[in-house]
Amino acid sequence: MFHPFDVSDNGHLTIGGIDSVYLANKYGTPLFVYDVNRIRNNARAFVDTFRELGVRAQVAYASKAFSSIAMIQIAKQENLSLDVVSQGELYTALKAEFPVERIHMHGNNKSREEISMAVKNHIGCIVVDNFHEIDLLEQTLIDYNQRMNVLIRVTPGIEAHTHDYILTGNEDSKFGFDLSNGQAEEALQRLLKIDSIHVMGLHCHIGSQIFETNGFTMAVERLFQKLKDWKDRYQFESEVLNLGGGFGIRYTKEDDPLPLSHYVKALVNTVEESTQSCYMSFPEIWIEPGRSIVGDAGLTIYKLGAVKDIPNVRKYVSVDGGMTDNIRPALYQAKYEAVIANNVYGAHKEEVSIAGKCCESGDMLILDIELPKVEENDLLAVFSTGAYGYSMSNHYNRFPKAAVVFIENGQDQLVIKRESFEDMVQNDLSYELGGKNNEASSN
Ligand SMILES: Cc1ncc(COP(=O)(O)O)c(C=O)c1O
Ligand SMILES: N[C@@H](CCCC[NH3+])C(=O)O
């Protein structure tokens, strides 16, 4: 097994020393389980590399990957900063008492309310995405008589090697100001004229699940081509350069991710070369990893149910979750590996496909995987579901959201409760307009 989890003598998968079968019995399934040690190690790989290189930096955890109070508390303990993209993510961060000065807000359509919430709570920085937002922010700062630090999000025109839906740094993107067509420069000009705004620098994020460093280094070079020009023309120097997230992780055997420190070293090297050749001072570097902090630290345990064998076609094995707790296979054709958690090394391997239980033919979690012969109530553990699993979960078919458990120091703790049916209908109101008449006419 190439995923970072162990197997006990009785063939059960263990997470941080705890038996997955015990966890499934205790908390039910589907169940997200995180090895907190691994989250911390991933975070430290970034933080420590910057420290070793002697570079001033902020590692901002992109909380969209998995936002919960417990997770934000860990980010705080690890001295990370935090990237939020909505009032909900900001609210979660505030509930977790995350230091506001290290919160950065993103979003391609920040509402007046979102901007007000950020301003009122004195967050560290807003990453400005478009002209409409500049107007809203300027007005909000007048209303609250406050100042705000901003970064300008730019699209450097890099086509990262990843799925189209998770590619963001190219020209044809809904995010940010284009660097080559003059829009980024126009944004800079407008922002520099607003007294209540301090432009700290530039931000770019080229995409997600990227396995090479050259996309990042090319982006840095493009940023500096502009920065050099802007220094000459506006005496503007970027104190901060935020180079986004997107560092790839291992989902399957085919994935060969770089050690996280390599990305940091490549970024720092290129910034160093670029600042030297442009005679500029070295900026503080910020990055925004999400997936690479939580992705491989989490897995999902499901219970197996119905098996449908279509001879010479496919054997469908269904789990008690699916696209409601992991929409990535349906959305991006994302691939995963899995084991039978209660029988990891079981014999009589056969090829099966893992189906979710939603009313959609496309709700297939894994196509064609070799597993030991399965039986009803066996447990399936799907690896690397720690990022964009729970955070993208939904209520399709009115399946309640799964529970989340953290493991650390040989102990388990529930950090998100399983939703009840009552939780799911709590905002539903019964319909009262014209009820009587329609009851009468239908009788
Ligand atoms: C602006 C921004 N920053 C950071 C991230 C985090 O990306 P990842 O989870 O791939 O590290 C994303 C998501 O792709 C993003 O859009
Ligand atoms: N949600 C995506 C990544 C996009 C992240 C946000 N820009 C995924 O699961 O891979």
UniProtKB/TrEMBL annotation:
Domain of life: Bacteria
Family: Belongs to the Orn/Lys/Arg decarboxylase class-II family. LysA subfamily.
One BP term from GO: lysine biosynthetic process via diaminopimelate
EC number in record: 4.1.1.20
Reactions this protein catalyses: meso-2,6-diaminopimelate + H(+) = L-lysine + CO2
Residues of the Orn/DAP/Arg decarboxylase 2 C-terminal domain: 32-386
Keyword list, A-Z: Amino-acid biosynthesis, Decarboxylase, Lyase, Lysine biosynthesis, Pyridoxal phosphate
Originating species: Gracilibacillus boraciitolerans JCM 21714
Active site positions, chain numbering: C359 (proton donor)
Gene Ontology molecular function: any one: pyridoxal phosphate binding
Cofactor requirements of the protein: pyridoxal 5'-phosphate
Residue intervals of the Orn/DAP/Arg decarboxylase 2 N-terminal domain: 39-294
This protein's pathway: Amino-acid biosynthesis; L-lysine biosynthesis via DAP pathway; L-lysine from DL-2,6-diaminopimelate: step 1/1
Subunit structure: Homodimer.
N6-(pyridoxal phosphate)lysine, modified sites: K64
InterPro entries: Ala_racemase/Decarboxylase_C, DAP_deCOOHase_LysA, De-COase2_C, De-COase2_N, Orn/DAP/Arg_de-COase, PLP-binding_barrel
Protein name: Diaminopimelate decarboxylase
Record flagged with keyword Lyase: yes
Keyword Acetylation: no
Residues that bind pyridoxal 5'-phosphate: G246, E288, P289, G290, R291, Y388
SUPFAM superfamilies: Alanine racemase C-terminal domain-like, PLP-binding barrel
Biological role: Specifically catalyzes the decarboxylation of meso-diaminopimelate (meso-DAP) to L-lysine.
Annotated positions binding substrate: R291, R328, Y332, E360, Y388
